[in-house]
Amino acid sequence: MGTIIKVTSPDERAAEVVFEEFRDWEEKLSHFKKGSPISRLNRRGKVRTDPEVLGLIKRSLEVSFLSSGTFDITLGPIIDIWKKAIKNKRLPKSKEIDNARKLIGWENIYIDENKGLIKFTKRGMKIDLGAIAKGFALDMAVARLRKEGITSALINAGGDIYCLGTKYGRRWKVGLRHPRRNREITKVYPLSDKAIVTSGDYEQYFTIEGKRFSHIIDPRTGYPADSGICSVTVIAEEATIADALATAIFVLGEKKGLELAKKFNIKEVRISKDCF
Ligand code: AMP
Ligand code: MG
């Protein structure tokens, strides 16, 4: 999943359980792995898959619906264009973006749950689960730990964090870094049995022609999000939802972003606009 996963636990089995889960889900959810259901879907426009993958796609669509499409797993074709732009250090042509935008739209995913079928309704569509897969894998890893009877662990998967149980009876402490001043901690949250996920433009961003761009795309324009936010942190029961919402709020901006969080009954969202 392109990140480093750190596990802290008094139980020596914890790390291997977590790594195993992440490896398994990466095999299933990555569009870079040729044999994954997601890659097959992207190649053929349809795939039969298991209830877990289907469930994740359904939840993604739910967030798309409630976020007015600012969270959208069908951004694949646009993300490819921006990846090429970064490689060549040249902004894409607006014509290219316009063409790719015709292939974008979460409404164009069709699901038949009884058959376990996911289908695209347009040729050339591509999904990219980059904004939700880490959160999902994290929830699955936590469920596995609980099943194995492991009750205390802190997992950090590159900004997607879960605090399982306590650290010797006290809540785990998670510090948020300032989005620009690397060594400054702006807030510390004591947490137990909660996910805390950050979407920021500082771990991943790129510069073309002197301008800084985030890796999060605004599906309404096809261009990198430009809402004035440089970091969003969401605390939730589930990492899957926290991950998806952090990305959506990054696109929506503060006012609409907080409205979205309310719909999911999220109590803690921290937004930073301290981007200079
Ligand atoms: P995150 O770091 O969770 O905010 O996810 C960002 C990643 O998700 C990007 O690297 C893209 O692969 C993908 N992505 C970018 N913009 C969006 C968006 N608006 N909705 C869904 N996925 C996106
Ligand atoms: Mg996300």
Task: Describe the protein's architecture and organization.
With 276 residues, this protein is α+β, with helices and mostly antiparallel strands. It has 8 helices and 15 strands. It has helices at 14-29, 37-44, 51-66, 76-88, 94-101, 133-147, 239-252, 254-263, and strands at 5-8, 46-48, 109-112, 117-120, 153-157, 160-164, 172-177, 185-191, 194-200, 205-208, 211-214, 217-218, 223-224, 231-236, 268-272. It has a 6-stranded antiparallel β-sheet, covered by helices on one side. A hairpin with a 2-residue loop joins strand 10 and strand 11 (211-214). It is globular. The site of magnesium ion (MG) has 7 residues, from helix 7. Magnesium ion is lined by residues 131-132, 199, 243-244, 246-247.
